[in-house]
Amino acid sequence: MAVTTAGGGRGIGGGASAAAGKQHLLEMREGARVISHTPARLNTAPSRAYYFYLMLPAIIVLACITLYPFFWLVWMSLHDVDVGAAADKWNDFANWIRLGRDRKFQDGWWLLLQYSAMCMVLQIGLGVLLAVILNGSRHEKLLVTIFLMPMMMAPVVAGLVWYYLYNSTFGWYHWLMQSAGILGERSILGDPSTAMLGIVIVDTWQWTPLITLIVLAGLKRVPRDQLEANMVDGAGEIRNFFQITLPNIYPFLLIAILLRFMDNFRFIDHILVLTGGGPADSTKILPTYLFDVSFQFFKLGRGAAIALTLLAVTIVLGLILVRVFQSPTAQTRPEDS
Amino acid sequence: MFYTPKNALFRRVGRRKFLELGGGAATALGAGSIAVGLNSVVTRRPAYAQSSEEAKWRQFEGTKLVFMSENTPPSFAIRENLQPFYDLTGIEVEILTDDLPVVQQKVGIDLRGGSADFHLNYVQDKPIGAPFADFYVDLTKFMADDTLPQDPDGSGEDAWFENFLTACGVYYDEGRIVAFPYDCAVACTFYRQDLFEQLSKDFEAEHGYRMEFNADTTWQNVQDFAAFFKKLREGGREDIPYGYAQHQGSFAWTTQLDIQRLLFANGRWTDFEGVDDKLGSREPGPTRWGDEQSVLIMQKFKDQADVSHPDNLANGTLELNTVYQAGQIAMQVQYHEFAASIEDESTSRAAGGKTGYGVCPLGAKEWIVNGGEAVNGTNCGIGGIGINAGASEELQRAAYLFAIWSTSKNTQFSVLKGVGGTPTRKAVLEIPEVQAARQRPTNMPNALTFEPVYDYGIRDPHFVLGPKIPEANEYHKILATEVQRCISGQTSAEEACEEIRWQLDDMHGH
């Protein structure tokens, strides 16, 4: 950049600016000063190194917060990383071998699949139903606001609220169920055969509104002309839903499923507050067991091995869902076919 | 950008000036954050052996300490009344409290990480002391340091109730003390005297002996009482509560303690052969689970569950106490710190002299197959106060002042009077006001339990601590799960004991 002063006096680099007259100099006047500088070469593609340096800070941050912990996790899973003061020791894959005979690990997977399946089916079904009912209703905005309330609550707080509602000594919900003859004196969380259902109910209460919200957004995009054309062809409400509405909201549903699926694999707040994984481990889904091993028993190496299996399965299932989401069927809308 | 009158009184701030000011502010904020983040300050005015007591107490004036504790009555009471300690020492103490499992996680990470964010820790014997014993300061070096003030009642074994110092302060090796007894929870029997008196004749007609509770009442008697109450209730007497309930909720440690007292009462059975549980062991060897005695007691425990409150598996220690307060059961073996809540007439239907406090039931001779002795197996949790070895030497010494002050006779007495504390020093029970409070009417309800607890239960041969092993928390979870599986009918007593044996031996590499 060259700077000259007005009024003929030459300043720094004044001679250079005269010599560089063939170049495209841009001059700007500001008060008594003239500022001129060389414009950037707009039409020249920057080198790859240029982009690399621009991205470098982000790459460093990402490496610190994702790659480093990931490789540290792999390293831990191959060592005895215990609460003791002794240095971490290579353990000949003992943490991995142990998973093969660890019944709590295997039961944890089975319970996690059960829990996820129950939550997904209930929440998707109820979420879509609620969205269809709310869509276009007279008090849609008010009702949507009311239905969204559970979602605004911290999961731990929601868990505590339901813990008190379910309590057999003073819980209002337990009293109601008992009065209706659905439950006896034993609470829903005090029986290994019903405790999981109790947790699924809480999860459904809190997260169905998310599905409703996403599906409701999808319903707004269903082309009215298609619905009307189908009705002209003699379709009723139900046929219309399955032939026109459902295909149109399919991508939205997939997003909802993907989100909830990943949430179910990582949210253990309700379980920790309501049952701690009991009674008799009937609600000890794998992430709860992982929490126990890592932060109650402080067997960090074993915990790392469990976490890696959870991570691998989450990635694979996530990829399958994304693949389905990106498939032509998912992206093709009825009018395209 | 904005119009500025020519006669404006302020000066325009240039960009350079603005950046300078911004940079200065950011630096100040950063430095402030670091200071807050460090969260501890230690200042020192040297004291010597010949210094006055006041100088010894005030040598760390201006220091700030953080104490991570379980949400127990002493911590609440001390937190509300820290002024006397500040006046005495000039040391500021922040007391953080949480549920025991959360405390265990937080101090575990802090101790292992070596960051010493919590200079003082609540060292609950098995859940915190056993796994983390190596990370605490050996207090014996401070106990022998004449530049530090010492408690006038002493801090050695004799100053505390029998077994208490060893239970919470000594782990695996004799001679090293890592915590002073800070509070305690000792099991005793709470029972509804009014209902026992009301129904005793009917019971006697049926069973041939009186329904009463004393040191000779056995677990078989408790089984009979519970079955009797349950039969009345299921026969349509809705005014009669269930007889008994167990600690079988989600808190694994008290679930394990619940069956442990039954096992110990009947033949003084313990988990590992040749291991002194008071000292603990890093390598306890193969477990005894699966032997004839353990299988028999597991079956008896299941029988007890069958006559207990129906929501047995949902009631942890706190919930169980609520069930008793609500008048839904006539007996519970509960920790003596809960007496204050039972005697609170605003929340408890069992208050007003309805509740009697007895020792834990005696083992039944017919239940003993290992040739052992029948005792009133009494288990407990002794919570200590320990000092993080990751803290600097000066902070450790400052923390020692708080450790001895918080466990002193006067502090424990004021906590007992205030919120219902659980003393650990013998000297507290010698205070005339405390002796008078052991009978009704009393302004210290916990003192009603002192006879079954301090005069009887905590003494040998009744005292049982349970395994002090580094894997104590995993051990508690294994036991809780398998016991719950058994009493809910998923496994038989033999299968449950065998499963426990397999898992414990696997955990210890046998």
Walk me through this protein's architecture.
- The complex is a heterodimer of chains A (337) and B (510).
- Chain A has a 3-stranded antiparallel β-sheet. Chain A has a two-stranded antiparallel ribbon with strand order 4-5.
- Chain A has 3 domains: 2-37, no CATH class; 48-96, no CATH class; 102-336, MetI-like (MetI-like fold), CATH 1.10.3720.10.
- Chain A starts with a strand and ends in a 6-residue tail after the last helix.
- Chain A has 14 helices and 5 strands.
- Helix content of chain A is 65%, strand content 5%.
- Chain B is an alpha/beta fold and 510 residues long.
- Chain B is 43% helix and 11% strand.
- The interface between A and B is medium-sized, with 29 and 39 residues.
- Which CATH top level class of the largest domain in chain B fits? Alpha Beta
Query: What is the CATH-assigned architecture of the largest domain in chain A?
Result: Orthogonal Bundle
CATH architecture of the largest domain in chain B: 3-Layer(aba) Sandwich
Helix content of chain B: 40-55%
Q: Major beta sheet of chain A, specifics?
A: 3 strands, antiparallel
Percent of residues of chain B in beta strands? 5-15%
Specify Rg of chain A, calculated over alpha carbons: 31 Å
DSSP E strands of chain A, number: 5
Morphology of chain B: globular
Strand content of chain A: 5-15%
Query: Helical segment tally of chain A?
Result: 14
SSE pattern of chain B: HHEHHEHEHHHEHHHHHEHEEHHHHHEHH
What is the mean predicted local confidence, pLDDT of chain A? 84
Question: What is the C-alpha radius of gyration of chain B, as a whole number of Å?
Answer: 27 Å
Specify the overall morphology of chain A. flat
| Gap between N and C termini of chain B | 79 Å
Supply the helix-strand structural class of chain A.
mainly alpha
The CATH first-level class of the largest domain in chain A comes to Mainly Alpha
Largest contact between chains: A-B, 29 and 39 residues
